[in-house]
Design goal:
globular; 5 strands; 5-stranded parallel sheet; 4 helices; DUF5615 family PIN-like protein; alpha/beta; single chain; Rossmann fold; about 120 residues
Length: about 120
């Protein structure tokens, strides 16, 4: 079974499109009606939906750090810095994660791209 992704609103549409073309299950914040919501709510929603959050927003790293320190569970975050990774590499690495890994592999942690 494939791992489902939840895309933060700042993720390039081309990444979402590329993943969907590769049969990766993706839901965007915009499609979920949570555009402009605070990061903690976005991460809570990803956890509620049992999806791995993908973001390129550095603020989520601080939120993950806070939750780890306070032992607040979350489904996991995959983070890629826009300035050091291409859209193609994001798509490739996220496809690999979605098709090979389980959500439990990412519980309460941050995975950085590129792999």
């Amino acid at each position: 079974m494939s791992l489902a992704l939840y895309m933060d609103e700042n993720v390039a549409r081309q990444i979402t499109t590329g993943l969907r073309q590769r049969n990766v299950e993706v839901l965007t914040v915009q499609e979920d009606g949570l555009t402009s919501f605070p990061d903690p709510i976005i991460l809570d929603r990803a956890t509620e939906l049992q999806r791995l959050l993908f973001t390129q927003d550095q603020d989520f790293l601080a939120e993950a750090n806070r939750r780890q320190a306070e032992e607040i569970n979350f489904s996991g975050i995959v983070y890629a810095r826009k300035s050091i990774i291409s859209i193609g590499v994001c798509v490739r690495d996220l496809e690999l994660i979605a098709k090979v890994c389980e959500l439990e592999d990412f519980a309460n942690r941050v995975q950085y791209l590129p792999l």
